[in-house]
Amino acid sequence: MKKLLIYFLIVSSLLTTGCFFKQQSYNDTRFLMDTIISISTTGKDQASLKSTTDEAFIAFNDVADETDRYTSHNPNDLYALNQHNGQGAFAVGDHLYKLITMGKEEPYSAIEISLGPVIDLWRAHGENKTVPTDEEIKTALAKCGRDKFTLDKTNHTASLASDSSLDLGAIAKGYAVDYAASVITKNKAVTSALINAGGNIKVIGTKEDGSPWRIGIQDPRNAQKVLGVLALQNGQAIATSGDYQRYYEVNGVRYCHIIDPATGSPARNAISATAVSTSALTADFFSTLLFILPHDEAIAVVEKTPQLEAIIVNPEGEIYVSPGLQKIFTKEN
């Protein structure tokens, strides 16, 4: 009886400490939104992790399809809306309506979702390694602006002016990350997860050993190095915009893919801007905004915006780290 009691106590101890329930992990990587998307999950049941990860990718893909301006996926997507410009009200999908509403109502003019014509102009010139003329840029900018599109909340429709088109590149990926994360958090069997959409990252839960998630910030001028490492906690999200991700050069001048609506040309006030928040959408939006704004204005935005922290590298290579990150950012020597 004594031996049986000892055996029972040992088994109870093992169960209590979780030794019989070794944490499982599941990782999957796919190509969506013109970038590599990886989702890593941890929990006690491998089958549950796989099914949840698959569901998260389905959610991500739904947003990707609906916000793709270059390819048709369904009758209510962004491609279809842009093709319908100048023809009146058009019924759009739920994700698309939310993002267009955000683009219409957000207060910063440096983020403009109607820049489709300008983006197309630079994209065409980029293929030939040429630079648009001032007149070409002026003509394209004339087709942009928040007066070029309207929304009807009652009928869930959007209308575009003739020759206008929307581009949601500054916000769609972050929105997709949040949407995928909402699927993962519904499964209580998942104890932690990390979603990485080409640098748009959100962490869920805590690592098995209780340590924070360590996220490296790319050195914008050396692909083999990082500026430093951020220690993120449960629910935090991070996004980085930089002139090193997609660009071309003409006569030694770099032209990146992020357009300043004020000039119709690639932004040049920063070479990298990283935003940290509790929402991947918020981080995505502000990383773009902080990249476009003049350095002093960008810092002022960070300082006045609740739950926003940032790391900004100006063209001279000077690094600004906001006060809320200084204790959790370890700079590389």
Automatic annotation (TrEMBL):
Listed A to Z, the keywords are: FAD, Flavoprotein, Magnesium, Metal-binding, Transferase
Q: Which cofactor does it need?
A: Mg(2+)
Where would one find coiled-coil regions in this protein? none
E.C. numbers = 2.7.1.180
Q: Per its record, what are the GO molecular function terms?
A: metal ion binding; transferase activity
Would I find Flavoprotein among this entry's keywords?
A: yes
Cross-referenced Gene3D superfamilies: ApbE-like domains
According to its UniProt record, which reaction does this protein catalyse? L-threonyl-[protein] + FAD = FMN-L-threonyl-[protein] + AMP + H(+)
Q: What is this protein called?
A: FAD:protein FMN transferase
Its organism's taxonomic lineage begins at:
unclassified sequences, metagenomes, ecological metagenomes
